[in-house]
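$ ./design --mode recover --in tokens.txt
reading tokens...
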């Protein structure tokens, strides 16, 4: 039999065997610990109803440990873990057997095991593994060809595409000498990923959210890794997306860096880290903060992520990639010197924090069409030109114009997490006659949606501790509602105070409902104020305009099955919604101040709102604990300095603001 080339290890083994005693000692220890864990587990003899993706990295870890050390007990353990998936008639049971994630994961991991340790397997076991990989690779390839233009075969922005094609390519490269049609697999995968890299947004963002970023995007790196090893082609250097994507992940980290901002489908608030992928991005793009975060995860976050994450297989089986992707030459640097805010234009994502400390306040505000602007435009173009369905943005919520607010170690204004029937009413958004976005109340709210239903961030500014952005979402509502305007002006101050001005209009009078989502019920405390407790923090809500709303706080249940491959898995939670309704009016304006507070902070605030000196402007003044913050918003996007009435600390399109210590008695504002 032909001995497959040791893909990813050719020319590296001697150096790696030396490095595991020095620079890679920590990563080597992780690999051996992971392999030791397998000894205490019993793999299923028959295919379970649940996902079997874990067999892939298990095989890769054991094969790498054997290849590095030569210790035969790793080979024996590998044989024990290879036997079940080789014997299963299909890979995947509950959903798309042989044609989806299980097949992609196993093609990748078992092919690496075949390349690294296949020559040490007994002849019959080696032949059985080879034949099984040929069978499963053929099934996966045939499905990709037959379904081109539909589902993952052409879903260029989707984790299923990246995982299945990366697995197919790995199998093709490993098997091609024994199975020449494997070259067709690798060529098809190459064409796919060339398109993927061309179509991914240059800002590095991901419409599926942090959890699916963590689950899916590393597979792009896995593919580029095997492509370079097999063909000598370096596509990392030509990928703006991968070059920038670490910043998306970092700025979607909660202030403690352990938890996440949970836009999109998120199993939980702790499923977000991949030390292996951070190492890879650090190595390819010399990003010291990525190197630092990888080590921070391993030092401080790893075990909690391993045991509490709802994403499987999870962080533990990535040991082989941690070792292979670690470059000790990349220096470490914490994020403390980075800007506090960042704008990701394609996803319409504006993020800012008051500092890089764990108790900082953070706001994440977003508005874009389904999949982000680039995907929206390209997918509609391909639908017209080729008749293809390429945008499968089922993990992207109807959340344009909504925000998440964290502070004092707590989630204050929250996202829904994971849901199967997605609703605008699950987000801190605006309803029109009680209705949210068009095509909602289903899993994939953007499927088949006409191009005109496009939301956007009109303008965004981050700097000097301030965050300002304006979203436009009127086009996302049912045309029958006649909505002409739903604009949200959002400002966060250096203290973390959030000022929100919502301006809406319709062709006929409508009821307008302003929504705020919290983990615990917001309790009314009088004078248009509510307090929502959140453990170490709490949120004070002050409604300034309008004054004649019908207000209620209701429980909002959320339910989901996050993976069709495991039908029994269910996520359920209840969040709480503050609903303020006014109208029916043709025009409505809500002015609201949200103050993040420590759990025991009872200091009162003096808050006021006035019309600015200029037309169509709003000035909000917040004084608390000896500090004063004044924000002017010009609703037409013009210069707001005159409305502010003083020289601003910061000014941009439609926005000006400053903050000062409270004025001594008898003194007015600075001028």
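writing sequence...
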């Amino acid at each position: 039999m032909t001995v497959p080339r040791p893909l990813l290890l050719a020319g590296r083994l001697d150096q790696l065997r030396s490095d595991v005693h020095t620079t890679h000692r920590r990563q080597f220890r992780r690999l051996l610990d992971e392999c030791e864990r397998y000894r205490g587990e019993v793999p299923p003899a028959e295919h379970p109803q649940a996902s079997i993706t874990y067999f892939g990295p298990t095989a890769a870890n054991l094969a790498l440990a054997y290849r590095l050390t030569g210790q035969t007990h790793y080979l024996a353990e590998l044989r024990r873990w290879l036997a079940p998936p080789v014997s299963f008639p299909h890979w995947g049971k509950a959903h798309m057997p042989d044609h989806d994630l299980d097949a992609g994961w196993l093609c990748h991991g078992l092919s690496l095991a075949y390349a690294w340790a296949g020559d040490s397997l007994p002849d019959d076991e080696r032949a059985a593994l080879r034949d099984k990989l040929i069978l499963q690779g053929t099934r996966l390839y045939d499905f990709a060809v037959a379904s081109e233009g539909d589902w993952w075969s052409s879903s260029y922005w989707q984790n299923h595409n990246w995982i299945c094609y990366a697995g197919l390519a790995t199998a093709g490269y490993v098997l091609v000498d024994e199975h020449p049609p494997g070259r067709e697999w690798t060529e098809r995968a190459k064409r796919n990923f060339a398109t993927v890299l061309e179509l991914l947004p240059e800002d590095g963002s991901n419409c599926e959210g942090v959890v699916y970023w963590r689950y899916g995007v590393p597979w792009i790196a896995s593919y580029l890794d095997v492509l370079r090893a097999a063909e000598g082609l370096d596509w990392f250097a030509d990928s703006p997306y991968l070059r920038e994507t670490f910043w998306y992940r970092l700025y979607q980290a909660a202030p403690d860096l352990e938890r996440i901002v949970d836009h999109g489908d998120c199993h939980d608030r702790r499923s977000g880290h991949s030390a292996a992928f951070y190492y890879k991005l650090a190595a390819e793009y010399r990003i010291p903060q990525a190197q630092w975060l990888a080590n921070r995860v391993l030092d401080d976050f790893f075990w909690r992520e391993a045991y509490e994450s709802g994403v499987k297989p999870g962080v533990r089986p990535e040991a082989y990639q941690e070792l292979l992707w670690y470059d000790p030459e990349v220096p470490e640097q914490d994020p403390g010197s980075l800007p506090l805010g960042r704008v990701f234009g394609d996803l319409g994502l504006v993020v800012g924090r008051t500092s890089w400390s764990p108790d900082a306040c953070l706001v994440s505000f977003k508005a874009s069409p389904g999949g982000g602007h680039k995907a929206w435009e390209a997918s509609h173009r391909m639908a017209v030109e080729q008749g293809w369905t390429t945008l499968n943005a089922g993990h992207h919520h109807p959340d344009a114009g909504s925000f998440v607010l964290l502070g004092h170690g707590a989630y204050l204004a929250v996202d829904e997490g994971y849901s199967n029937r997605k609703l605008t009413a699950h987000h801190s958004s605006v309803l029109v006659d009680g209705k949210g976005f068009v095509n909602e109340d289903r899993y994939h709210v953007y499927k088949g949606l006409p191009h005109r239903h496009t939301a956007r961030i009109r303008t965004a500014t981050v700097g000097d501790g301030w965050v300002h952005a304006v979203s436009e979402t009127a086009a996302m509502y049912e045309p029958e509602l006649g909505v002409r305007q739903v604009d949200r002006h959002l400002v966060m101050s250096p203290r973390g105070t959030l000022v929100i001005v919502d301006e809406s209009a319709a062709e006929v009078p409508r009821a307008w409902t302003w929504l705020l989502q919290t983990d615990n019920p917001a309790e009314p405390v009088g004078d248009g104020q509510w307090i929502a407790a959140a453990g170490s923090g709490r949120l004070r809500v002050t409604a300034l305009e309008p004054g004649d709303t019908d207000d209620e706080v209701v429980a909002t249940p959320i339910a989901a099955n996050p993976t069709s491959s495991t039908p029994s898995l269910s996520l359920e939670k209840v969040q709480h919604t503050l609903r303020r309704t006014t109208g029916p009016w043709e025009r409505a304006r809500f002015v609201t101040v949200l103050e993040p507070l420590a759990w025991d902070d009872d200091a009162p605030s003096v808050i006021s709102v006035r019309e600015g000196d200029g037309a169509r402007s709003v000035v909000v003044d917040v004084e608390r604990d000896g500090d004063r913050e004044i924000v002017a918003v010009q609703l037409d996007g013009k210069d707001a300095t005159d409305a502010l009435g003083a020289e601003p600390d910061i000014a941009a399109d439609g926005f000006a603001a400053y903050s000062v210590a409270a004025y001594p008695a008898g003194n007015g504002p600075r001028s």
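exit 0
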